[in-house]
Amino acid sequence: MSAGENAPPDPKATKSTSNTGGSKTSGSNTPVVAGVPITHPDRVLYPEHGITKLDVARYYEELEEHILPHLRHRPLSLLRCPEGLEQDCFFQKHPDKQFAKDVPRTPIPEKRGGSSSYLYVSSISELVWLVQYGVLEFHPWGCQISDVEKPDTLIFDLDPGPNLGWQVISETAIGLRERLDALGLDSFLQASGGKGLHLVIPIEPKWEWDTLKAFSHSIARAHAKDDPRNLTTNMAKSKRGGKVFIDYLRNGRGNTSIARYSTRAQEDARVATPLRWDELSTQTTSNRYNINNIRRRLGALKTDPWEGYEESRNVITKAMLNQYR
Fold first, then answer.
1. If we measure between CA atoms, which residue out of 129, 178, 157 comes closest to residue 277?
2. pTM listed for this prediction
3. Which end of the chain is more exposed for a tag (fewer CB within 10 A), N or C?
4. What is the DSSP string of 169-210?
5. How far apart are CA 316 and CA 299, in angstroms?
6. Cα dist. 138→5, 64, 256 in Å?
């Protein structure tokens, strides 16, 4: 790991490397990114490093081929920080009629009856429109809009308690991967950009949410039972202490997880980053990459860390579902 990869983003470097051929200036001197006019382009979203709204929009345009394959055509929940991190940030699930009119919506039935409107994106232009409206984090459902009742993704979010050593987190990830491998499920690793790690499992959309939530709970419970001193499936923070919470709740209907390469609404403009399994070591951290150094990482990679992701989709069988019941 180089010193440059650990360093916080340099706003000058961010701005100089984020110019792309797709970014233009309109006749009114308003910058245009992916066909989207960026108003208030100099508004500082990450004040610690002077990273602006225009920088963020250009970041997403530049990483289109890395971001869109795992984000398009999925219902979204959004974390918005319209005035930057120094002001209020808030989650938004349902857009009103005036919000980001150029971004498509889809109606999704609610358990209580009726339906609600959710945003989704199919192009980089639509994603940049959301940045124009102050979105800093993209949280997709684990399903496609074409079949919202049958997930095609499972997530295990390893959320460490305060002051927990990184070795425990990495060993938990490796052990859980081995358990999933034994079931016949391939898992892909992601540094969350926050405190923990995500294991992402591509699956064929066969079962409904409740079935897969129960399945993921049974896996998490079995894994925690093998190491109760360090692991828990109890979501209550008062019960978690210095343990890793194996969060299986992301697999519930309407719940979400941070998108690959999404910016985080945290200091240093961190980015959720896919990793190869052989990158996981005692030197790894969950917040190593940010809006600036992620470009160097991608430029240096010879292959996609998640190479073979789509080809790894397996059907969860009844035998798998019964394994840990």
1. 178
2. 0.90
3. C
4. HHHHHHHHHHHHHHHT---EEEE-SSSSEEEEEEB-S-S-HH
5. 36
6. 23, 14, 9
